[in-house]
Amino acid sequence: MSLSVSFLDIVKAHKNLKGQVIHTPLISSPALSAIADADVWMKLECHQKTGSFKARGALNKIASLTEEELARGVITASAGNHAQGVAYASSLKGASALIVVPKTAPETKKAGIKRYGAELVVYGDSYDDAESHAYELAKETGRTFVHAFEDNEIIAGQGTAALEALLEEPDFDVILVPAGGGGLICGVALAAKAINPDVQVIGIQTYASPPWYYSFREKRLAEVVYSDSLADGLHGGITQGNLDLALQIIDDFLLVEEEHVAQAMSWLAKEHHLMVEGSGAVGVASLMQGTVPDLEGKKVLTIVSGSNVDAGKLAEIIGKHAYGIG
After folding, report:
1. Based on the number of CB atoms within 10 Å of its own CB, is 122 exposed (0-12), middle (13-18) or buried (19 or more)?
2. What residues pair up with 303 in beta bridges, in sequence order?
3. How far apart are CA 221 and CA 260, in angstroms?
4. What is the mean predicted confidence (pLDDT) over 15-31?
5. Does pTM top 0.85 for this prediction?
6. What is the DSSP letter of 118?
7. Residues with a known catalytic role
8. Is the dihedral of CA 128, 107, 122, 50 positive or negative?
9. pLDDT tens by residue, 232-285
10. 202 near 38, Cβ under 8 Å?
């Protein structure tokens, strides 16, 4: 689908979400600044309701539905965080939510979905499998499908995370954004470029799921190979609508290794006492490894996008990785 989201849509979403989402902390990190040789700040969406920024888009989308659509119920596919956001937003409206997640979704995300009263279906080995099944169920049940990222209201809602940060600190030179389907980075770029057209917005993916990296360079939806990833929330394909939008407003996409994601998760736990899932740690991983070029002396924002990691998995990662970087 063709997407048309404006800065005004993000400002309206920001107004509508007041009191419904947490105004998450924006903190400077002297330790990460020293590693990156830049002035590094983190927007802690890991402290957001439902454990990730996804609550923003879901609340904005569900609020846009008609009474008739809400009465029929909603359905979505998700790696886990969008699902929790939709379950939470639907529960506030008294609407029925059916959520399809792949087998790879962490237990903590499945538990969160059930906690908000949604019906959970586990299907397929990847997000793409879960999404195909959800579309079939939407046809069978008449429920309204809520796409995780190819949706105007979802993108506007996600963009409020950047607007919040930029209203506090408007002079960032570079913003690093975890890139999965593209809802967050498209929303962030729309907000950031409206406030400062010169700011660089760079998406970070893992080598295990790199569709943005290759599609952005080829300017078309590229075929890529997927493998298991700690950053499960970023795993899966992208759509033409998001790619068309991204090509207009995003500066670049870069890749990080799984090992570096694990190191960043461990570092965030030890240095900042933050419980961060792999998807939320990719920007920090890129800074720790020097993946982003020409940062010296610049003011850099990275979105720490979520906290929904199984505690046992995080403990295992922390146990494996020394305090330093490697």
Report:
1. middle
2. 43
3. 26
4. 97
5. yes
6. -
7. 54, 305
8. negative
9. 889 888 999 999 999 999 999 999 999 999 999 999 999 999 999 999 999 999
10. no
